[in-house]
Amino acid sequence: MSMTSFIVDVEKCSGCGLCVVACKDEHVGSAYEPWTKPQPATGHFWMNLRSYETGKIPKVSVSHMPTMCQHCANAPCMKVCAENAINRRDDGLVWIDQDLCTGSGLCQEACPYDVIYMNAEIGVAQKCTGCAHRVDEGLLPRCVGICPHGAILFGDETGDVMIAAAANGDPLEVYHSEFNADPRVLWKGLPRRIVSGTVIDRDTNDVIQDVDVAVRDLFYDQVVSTVTDAFGDFWLRHLESDRKYQLTVKKVGYGEQVRVLSTDSDRDLGEVVLVRTD
User: Fold this and answer.
1) What share of the chain is helix, strand, coil (3-state, %, to 5)?
2) Pairing between strand 193-201 and 185-188?
3) Which residues contact 216 (CB under 8 A, 6 or more apart)?
4) Which residues pair with 214 in a beta bridge?
5) Dihedrals phi, psi of 37, to nearest 5 degrees
6) CA-based diameter of the chain, in Å?
7) What class, spelled out in words, does domain 4-188 have in CATH?
């Protein structure tokens, strides 16, 4: 059987929450043996929507991350389960055998992503199964099928859809790579440091549109660039933490602004003033 993966594109997620509702509609009150017993009506979020505020006032934005079990290849939950109740299917989906689980809770404590829940009523651990019952019928997981923006994809790693998603746009990465869990959920556009500001004409005090703004990572020479919008605002996103960057702000007819900044936190530079040269 081919290995499967999820791809979550944070940039496409609007935070509508339909994936959360669909997951509950699929699992609350419904058992899909052997993969899972019913999800309780309250307290469990096998699909959860985590929101992260980024930027600095007044330029603040929110990123939404639909988060479920990461179906790790190096899963800590499997290592601590004395009953060997946590298993991995041939397609990579991780599931908890509800008949073997004794409800010790060790897997919940071991999970670095906090996506395992204890069902106190029946005394077992539960989590996202990747809708294994639907996958076996050739269907998509409910969260994937319901997303109106195509923010969640699922499929065979060698399939055309997944290959195209991996090749288009931001590179794929894992959430919290430092956990070394080798998850099968891959991400695009994970929230990182943001540098923002507004470019102003010194003489007229007007905002300037279509100004080229770029930062160069002084550690790795990587460049992130953008242009100012109709309000003179710019947002440089997906910058690494605790790096030194060289900021360059330039437009034909104006003197260039260059400065060095640190990304120990999100930065709003306020007004960046350009002086006319003609």
Assistant:
1) 15, 35, 50
2) unpaired
3) 222, 223, 245, 246, 248
4) 225, 248
5) -90, 175
6) 78
7) alpha beta
Q: What is the pLDDT of residues 255-272, one digit of tens each?
A: 999 999 999 999 999 999
**Separation CA 36–CA 114 (nearest Å):** 18
State pTM to two decimals: 0.85
Beta bridge partners of 223: 216
Integer Cα distance of 276 and 278 in angstroms: 6
Distance CA 132, CA 134 (A): 5
May I ask the CATH architecture of the domain 193-274? Answer: Sandwich (2.60)
- Contact call for residues 260 and 244 (beta carbons, < 8 A): yes
* Tokens 């994936």 found at: 19
Residue 12 gets which letter from DSSP?
A: G
pLDDT of residue 156: 87
Mean pLDDT of the chain: 94
Contacts 24+ apart (CB under 8 A), 258-261: 260/218, 261/195, 261/215
Which whole-number Å values give the CA distances from 223 to 53, 59, 182, 216, 244, in the listed order? 24, 22, 28, 4, 12
Domain borders along the chain are: 4-188, 193-274
